[in-house]
Design goal:
The complex is a heterodimer. By secondary structure, chain A is α+β, with helices and mostly antiparallel strands. Chain A is built from 8 helices and 21 strands. Chain B has 2 domains: 223 residues, MetI-like (MetI-like fold, Orthogonal Bundle); 197 residues, MetI-like fold (Orthogonal Bundle), CATH 1.10.3720. Chain B is an all-alpha fold. In chain B, 73% of the residues lie in helices and 0% in strands.
């Protein structure tokens, strides 16, 4: 029985310290500091052009930092060429060599390490079984489906038992259904191997579902690091709030002080603010669609807040109904659970958005 | 009763689809016309060659005795071996020239990489036999290099002796085929292919041997097989270097000196065809399932490395040496065209412009003829190319692929074989006034058109493939008929590709000699390449010959450059540029 051996050596940490990188005038990474714990499944999440792939390639040795260093297991590897780093990377395009069979692709890294023939064969078989493709060892990459190619790329990388596994948007070339399946497989594999893994993606759902922690990046800067739930519930800034899930953002100004303090939303609506809340300068009011409720006009919100609004859109989503309502000049989304028989708000009707105080987040840019 | 009203709309609604599946009468007529043309001017001459080779002389009985004679004749067997040896060695030397240029310019940050790639094409725009004369002057027994060697060191090198001369001239002339294909293959390797190997611990020469080289191999093989076939079929270069014991010269000499009734010329032709077909088949076999173009979404090819100072010295040294070598024929030709006397000295004695005066005076008929022939041949090629591409890609006509195959089959027919076929087939056909069809200049045009059709066809094919069918459907949807759609939408969009096809046909037809050498009946009908050949055969004619050669090179270069400009501009106008 080919038991999947967990790592023979303990998992290692990855530390990125003060990394800056520029291409000419283009400052791609701006003083990036990150600590990735041993055995962690970590994601670099951000829109395209945010520097997440550049950072991953920096760890693999394909990019050179202008300043700062990368430590793996506490050891500085910044000066090493890619072939001496022992970090396994799965490329976005998979980069399977078309002139080699699946087995030869997987054997490549072992052969480069001078592993004996018999041992190479054994470890190729183990790696291919690991991804469930033992029966396709003799095929050429071009004869495989996208999902199979992706698994071969993973097998090729883990076969050399790297210290760290780097995944560069590994799901982006797969269709939606395969994506869900493969991301679970990746998570299972990482759990079994106990391998420190870094996953680059622009898709927050992918990052949320399989990663332990996420670094949200934008414009070359790490915006926030945390577990998916931390990021969702306590985003550090407006970018993080709107990049992870849908966020309603109300622009306005804080007027008055103490008990008289209130938030004047653009368009003329005023909200009282309880005295115990501290609000950063220039902050906006943020809340999630499912944390608000929609009631009839002139309703009271109890100890919460009530915002008069007009219903502009209504979308039936199955389990819920999403309303687009205008509060002053701003349109916000409100999700209400769908229950058959209950009356829906009509488009054009006056209504009230009610919010409980702890659903509110105050965030600056 | 209720069935009838529902049946009628169904019938009418399936009618347009049924018409789309088969072809319109116009398309069928077009296909038949093309088929007739190909049959008459490609199938019939080649068939005649085969027929004569396999029949007893004087009768029409099938026999293999001609081939038995071929095998028994020592001269023919030696010629076969020589042709094979020269072609193989030309591939080797062409590779020696092409590999460093391709590797250095695609893998390193190399100043002047564009210049190297452009200069690398230059030998192709001159017929190889023209270069042969210039090479004699530099590298011959009493050429510049050997005179200097003899002066300084007291020995000479036989660069141009016998078969070596042919190998030298051919490898210098044809190495761009390997350079172009190999460079493209190297550029098409996705950077991730290399990075994945580095990531798994590979670097340096091992990385090259295990990843880069295998991925570029198909491109190299494609170029190498092309060089092999071209050299195997070339007629004029060995003849000009006075090497007669090779197959193509033998075929020519048998037919011209013994007569068109002698079967041996035809037997040699069959051997030439078989060798061509085998070489192409082998390369197709080697390339099968190996489309390794791995770049994705326009992503960059292999990473280019900065050279260390020593590498740079070595790299630039090698490149300059090779470029000097391959440009030597052009330089020699230019010198020769201005030289009064150039013999037994490293450089000409004095300079004159008299040769050019002669070329533009009494010999300008060669230039006029070439322009007419090459334009007509190129015109025929693009008309046929567009028509065949359209029929194959846009209609469901039964047997349409056969048109494509038949037109492409011309690739496997050596020029000298086509020439012999034309001579034999059309000599018997006479016009009302008694002149044989084979002696009319239009025969030369047809032979050129057939020879260059595969290239024009590929260009038209590629152009049409890039046009989305929905553009045509939109025109039809707005009321244009098929014919008007082709005229108003398809052809304008294909214009760049059509022009590229025309230029390829035109410029290669302008310097073609293998097929036409046999078909030229009088000096007044002769094209430029023939005039060059005649001039170059006598010592006195070399000056005017060189001047004519320079004119030919400039003509082709100018046409290529202009068409390049036009294509670039039209692509920019259409927003198809990058």
């Amino acid at each position: 029985m080919n038991a999947i051996a967990p790592l023979t050596t303990p998992a290692v940490s990855v530390d990125i310290e003060g990394v800056n990188l520029s291409y000419g005038d283009n400052h791609v990474l701006k003083t990036v500091d990150l600590s990735i714990r041993p055995g962690e499944f970590f994601a670099f999440l951000g829109p395209s052009g945010c520097g997440k792939t550049t950072l991953l390639r920096l760890i693999a040795g394909f990019n050179q930092a202008d300043t700062g260093r990368v430590l793996i297991g506490g050891k500085d590897i910044s000066g090493l060429p890619p072939w001496k780093r022992d970090v396994g990377m799965v490329f976005q395009s998979y980069a399977l060599w078309p002139h080699m069979s699946v087995a030869r692709n997987v054997a490549f890294g072992l052969e480069e390490r001078g592993v004996g023939r018999a041992e190479v064969d054994r470890r190729v078989a183990v790696a291919l079984d690991l991804v469930g493709l033992g029966h396709l060892a003799g095929r050429r990459p071009s004869q495989l489906s996208g999902g199979q190619q992706q698994r071969v790329a993973v097998a090729r990388t883990v076969a050399v038992e790297p210290k760290v596994l780097l995944l560069d948007e590994p799901l982006s070339n797969l269709d939606a259904k395969m994506r869900v399946q493969v991301r679970r497989e990746l998570r299972d594999l990482q759990q079994r191997l106990g391998l420190t893994t870094i996953f680059v993606t622009h898709d927050q759902e992918e990052a949320n579902t399989i990663c332990d922690r996420i670094a949200v990046m934008n414009d070359g800067v790490v915006q926030q690091v945390g577990t998916p739930m931390e990021l969702y519930e306590r985003p550090a800034n407006l970018f993080v709030a709107s990049f992870l899930g849908t966020a309603n953002i109300l622009d306005g100004t804080v007027v008055g002080t103490g008990g008289e303090r209130h938030f004047a939303i653009k368009g003329g609506i005023k909200l009282p603010i309880s005295a115990d809340i501290t609000i950063p300068d220039g902050a906006k009011l943020v809340f999630r669609p499912q944390h608000a409720a929609l009631t009839g006009p002139a309703a009271s919100a109890g100890d919460g807040l009530a915002l008069p609004c007009v219903v502009a859109h209504r979308e039936f989503l199955g389990a819920s109904v999403r309303y687009g309502v205008r509060v002053g000049e701003t349109e916000v989304a409100v999700d209400t659970p769908f229950q058959s028989g209950r009356d829906l708000h009509e488009i054009g009707a006056d209504a009230t958005v009610t919010l409980s105080p702890h659903a509110l987040i105050w965030l600056a840019d | 009763m209720t069935a009838i009203p529902t049946a009628i709309p169904t019938a009418t609604s399936t009618l347009p689809r049924a018409r789309r599946l088969s072809a319109t009468p116009g398309q069928i007529a077009l296909a038949l016309a093309i088929a007739a043309f190909l049959l008459l001017f490609l199938g019939l001459p080649v068939g005649t060659v085969l027929y004569v080779a396999f029949t007893e002389k004087g009768t029409s009985n099938f026999t293999l005795v001609n081939f038995y004679d071929f095998v028994r004749t020592e001269l023919f067997m030696r010629s076969l071996w020589n042709s094979f040896y020269v072609s193989a060695m030309s591939v080797v030397w062409a590779s020696v020239f092409a590999l460093p240029l391709a590797y250095l310019t695609t893998r390193f940050v190399f100043r002047g990489a564009m210049l190297v790639q452009t200069l690398g094409f230059l030998p192709l725009i001159m017929p190889p036999f023209v270069g042969a004369v210039a090479m004699q002057l530099f590298f011959g027994r009493n050429g510049s290099i050997n005179l200097l060697l003899d002066d300084w060191f007291g020995f000479k090198i036989g660069f141009m002796e016998g078969l070596n001369g042919v190998i030298f001239v051919q490898s210098v002339h044809y190495f761009p085929f390997i350079l172009i294909n190999l460079s493209a293959a190297l550029r098409n390797i996705d950077r991730a292919m290399e990075e994945a190997a580095q990531n798994l611990g590979s670097s340096g020469f091992r990385l090259f041997r295990r990843i880069v080289f295998p991925l570029a191999l198909p491109g190299y093989l494609a170029g190498a097989s092309l060089v092999f076939v071209k050299v195997f079929d070339d007629l004029a270069t060995p003849l000009l270097l006075n090497v007669k014991d090779m197959l193509a010269p033998q075929a020519y000499l048998r037919v011209t000196s013994i007569g068109i009734a002698d079967p041996m010329g035809y037997v040699i032709s069959v051997v030439l065809i078989v060798a061509s077909v085998i070489a192409m088949w082998l390369s197709a076999l080697a390339l099968k399932g190996r489309d390794y173009a791995t770049t994705q979404r326009g992503g960059g090819g292999l990473a280019r490395r900065v050279m260390t100072p020593w590498e740079a010295v070595l790299g630039y040294g090698v490149v300059i040496l090779i470029l000097g070598l391959v440009l030597a024929p052009h330089l020699g030709l230019l010198l020769l065209s201005f030289a009064t006397i150039w013999s037994f000295s490293p450089l000409p004695d004095a300079f004159t412009t008299a040769h050019y005066a002669r070329v533009f005076g009494e010999s300008s008929v060669y230039i006029t003829n070439t322009l007419i022939y090459a334009t007509l041949a190129g015109g025929i090629d693009i008309v046929l190319g567009v028509a065949i591409a359209y029929l194959v890609l846009r209609t469901k006509l039964i047997g349409r692929e056969w048109l494509d195959w038949a037109a492409s089959a011309a690739l496997a027919i050596p020029g000298v074989v086509l020439g012999i076929g034309y001579l034999r087939t059309f000599y018997g056909v006479t016009l009302p006034d008694g002149t044989p069809l084979a002696s009319l200049w239009i025969t030369i045009v047809l032979a050129l058109a057939i020879r260059r059709l595969p290239y024009a066809l590929r260009a038209c094919y590629a152009a049409l493939q890039q046009i989305s069918v929905s553009l045509e459907e939109a025109a039809e949807n707005l009321g244009a008929t098929k014919a008007r759609t082709v005229r108003r939408v398809v052809v304008p969009l294909m214009a760049g590709g059509i022009l590229a096809g025309f230029v390829t046909s035109f410029s290669t037809a302008a310097v073609e000699l293998s097929a036409t050498l046999m078909l030229v009946q009088s000096n007044s009908d002769a094209p430029l390449a023939f005039g060059l050949y005649v001039f170059m055969q006598s010592a006195a004619g070399r000056g005017p010959g060189a001047a004519l050669g320079v004119v030919a090179v400039l003509l082709v270069a100018l046409c290529t450059f202009i068409s390049h400009l036009i294509i670039e501009r039209s692509q920019k106008a259409k927003g198809m540029g990058h």
